[in-house]
Write a structure and sequence with these properties.
By secondary structure, the protein is of the alpha+beta class. It has helices spanning 4-16, 34-51, 74-81, and strands at 22-26, 54-58. It has a single domain (4-81), classed as P-loop containing nucleotide triphosphate hydrolases (Rossmann fold).
């Protein structure tokens, strides 16, 4: 049996095995406490860097936004896909 944090790390490792160019992580830290979240994020960032992979990280936790080069809210994304009104 694995803890939630261990399961998250296994999922990250599995995602990186094939050296993908893009890793999509959908709410990977939602069930983690602060310490486990920090450890997981450090590991995820390091492994993506080592693999040369881009990371698309989806989260409701706005406090994580400063950790990334770029962030978009769902509202911004929705505006980007709507046709412009005349």
């Amino acid at each position: 049996e694995l803890s939630i944090g261990q399961q998250q790390r296994v999922a990250a490792a599995r995602a990186l095995i094939g050296q993908p160019e893009l890793v999509i992580a959908d709410e990977p830290t939602s069930a983690l406490d602060f310490d486990a979240r920090e450890a997981f994020l450090q590991l995820l960032f390091a492994e993506c860097r080592a693999a040369g992979a881009s990371l698309l990280f989806v989260s409701h936790d706005q406090s994580l936004a400063p950790l990334f080069d770029r962030s978009l809210s769902l509202a911004e994304l929705n505006r980007a896909t709507r046709p412009q009104e005349a």
